[in-house]
Design a protein that fits this description.
The complex is a heterodimer. Chain A is globular and about 75 Å long. Helix content of chain A is 83%, strand content 0%. Chain A is mostly helical. Chain A is built from 13 helices and no strands. Chain B is of the alpha/beta class. In chain B, a hairpin with a 2-residue loop joins strand 4 and strand 5. The chains are: A mainly alpha, B alpha/beta. Chains A and B meet through helix 8 and helix 9 of A and strand 6 and helix 2 of B.
Chain lengths: 258, 234
């Protein structure tokens, strides 16, 4: 019992098993129509079928590819704007204003405009992801830059570090805690935006993605497929979360005294 | 020729009710090879003086000549050790911190050589085999030893020390003073050491000085001066 109280992963696993059991019991009791709540077996079978048929892997692959491309654009944008703000007060004030306006704007609200500008293909989805992720990244990056202790900057200046080295060797690593916080928000926003956009776009273009897979399953009244898709989305979220936590453990937790 | 010559230095900071003067016409001469301590009350401007000499603050008026040339900004030849424990870069291991500083100053230095030099100075400062640790894993005293090791490794012409041992207990502080004194003598380094501790100022330097609380002048202190007189001047 003591061991169980200390092991968070084991606790999570136990609760998941319990939730699945409740699901199956409710399904077997017949209280809810099997059309609305399929059994675990059916979901698993549908999952296996979609994987074997290659549909699920290709849809998930497409979604991941899109989100990676969108995040890459967002990171590049945030870095360029963040670095430029560091060296020009005029630009910093401009970027700050831009952030203030764009940060609270949900990507979905921009969707119609993005369709007009980019169509309904991958460029539009990448634009939506980039918008969702760039602003929280930039916001955290500029905060991180502003919070770099004076001692580090002065020491680096005494060592004669030039502009580029100052950015890469001092500003960036010193801002990693803020950067990671920004990545978490950026990922969460981008992932939500991606799934929503896919549901809306998939019907129009042939691109699809995991969001489209879930949506299509609903249209076909393929509830097991619907659940299979949702479970995949959950799994990807958990994996990314643990990846970010690994990065955190390797950086800021080593760097800061506990 | 003096290693450092400060003439008529004025510096004030922006405050809520207009500029707050920190230094008002301070003069200082430091010959090569001397460890000079400046005793002063908190807020007398001694840290400001150090920061001006390091090049981190631009004086309002006056002149700072280093090796006969007016200073222009910061440089590794005037390297500062701060009071804060967290002055090493926390994202580099202790040894990497020193090797990084060395390679920033001497770009042609081979990494292996920089690592060897880092290990040597860590050992000199009483931290042998600590190069692989993260700064966060060191105690306060060890952090100051590592900061000293980084400063010594750079072999600056002038070491600037801003109350580096202020937060340490009496035993540790004494050990660090002995270490600093020994290393400065062994390697012929010049240093400017500011402190608010009377004993520290008198013990560390053959030529202790005192800074007036209004930042107007720096007076030489005699080691035999009674404490009461020093306190009256502070």
């Amino acid at each position: 019992m003591k061991k169980l109280l200390q092991n968070k992963n084991l606790q999570h696993l136990l609760w998941i098993v319990l939730l699945l059991c409740v699901w199956q019991v409710v399904h077997l009791s017949g209280v809810v129509s099997p059309l609305l709540l399929p059994g675990l077996g059916e979901v698993a079978a549908e999952f296996a079928r979609a994987i074997a048929g290659g549909e699920l892997p290709s849809q998930v692959g497409l979604s991941l590819l899109l989100i990676l491309a969108g995040l890459a654009v967002a990171v590049a944008l945030a870095l360029v704007l963040g670095f430029a703000s560091l060296y020009s007060r005029v630009f910093a004030s401009f970027a700050d204003t831009l952030c203030m306006l764009a940060h609270p704007l949900p990507a979905i609200a921009l969707l119609p405009l993005i369709i007009v500008w980019f169509g309904v293909g991958p460029p539009a989805i990448i634009a939506i992801i980039a918008h969702s992720a760039a602003w929280p990244l930039l916001l955290n990056l500029t905060t991180g830059f502003a919070e770099v202790p004076r001692v580090y900057l002065e020491t680096a200046r005494s060592l004669g570090l030039r502009r580029g080295a100052m950015l890469v060797r001092i500003y960036l690593p010193a801002s990693v805690p803020y950067l990671l916080a920004g990545c978490k928000t950026a990922w969460a926003r981008a992932w939500r935006a991606l799934i929503s956009a896919e549901m809306l776009f998939g019907a129009v273009a042939a691109s699809g993605g995991i969001g489209w897979y879930i949506f299509k399953s609903r249209v076909m009244m393929n509830t097991p497929g619907l659940f299979a898709g949702i479970l995949v989305v959950i799994c990807i979220g958990v994996v990314v979360d643990s990846l970010l936590r690994t990065v955190e453990a390797r950086t800021i937790r080593r760097w800061s005294a506990v | 020729m003096m290693l450092l010559e400060v003439k008529g230095l004025y510096k004030s900071y922006a405050g809520g009710n207009g500029p707050v003067p920190a230094l008002r016409g301070v003069n200082l001469r430091l010959p090569k090879g001397l460890l000079l301590t400046i005793l002063g009350r908190s807020g007398c401007g001694k840290t400001t003086l150090l920061r001006c000499v390091a090049g981190h603050e631009a004086p309002d008026a006056g002149e700072i000549c280093f090796e006969g040339v007016p200073i222009a900004g910061p440089g590794h030849k005037r390297f500062m050790v701060y009071q804060q424990y967290d002055q090493l870069f926390p994202w580099m291991r202790v040894g990497q911190n020193i090797a990084f500083a060395l390679r920033a100053v001497h770009p042609a230095l081979a990494p292996a050589e920089a690592n060897d030099t880092a290990a040597f100075w860590l050992a000199e400062c009483g931290l042998p085999d600590s190069g692989g640790l993260w700064p966060a894993e060191l105690s306060g005293g060890m952090k100051q030893r590592a900061a000293l090791a980084r400063a010594f490794a750079l072999q600056p012409a002038l070491l600037l020390l801003d109350e580096p041992f202020a937060g340490l207990d009496a035993v540790l502080r004494h050990a660090m003073q002995v270490l600093l004194l020994g290393l400065c003598q062994k390697h012929g380094l010049s240093a400017l050491f500011v402190t608010h501790d009377i004993a520290e100022a008198l013990d560390l330097s053959p030529a202790p000085c005192l800074m007036r609380p209004d930042g107007t002048e720096i007076l030489p202190l005699d080691k035999t001066t009674p404490r009461e007189e020093i306190l009256a001047l502070l």
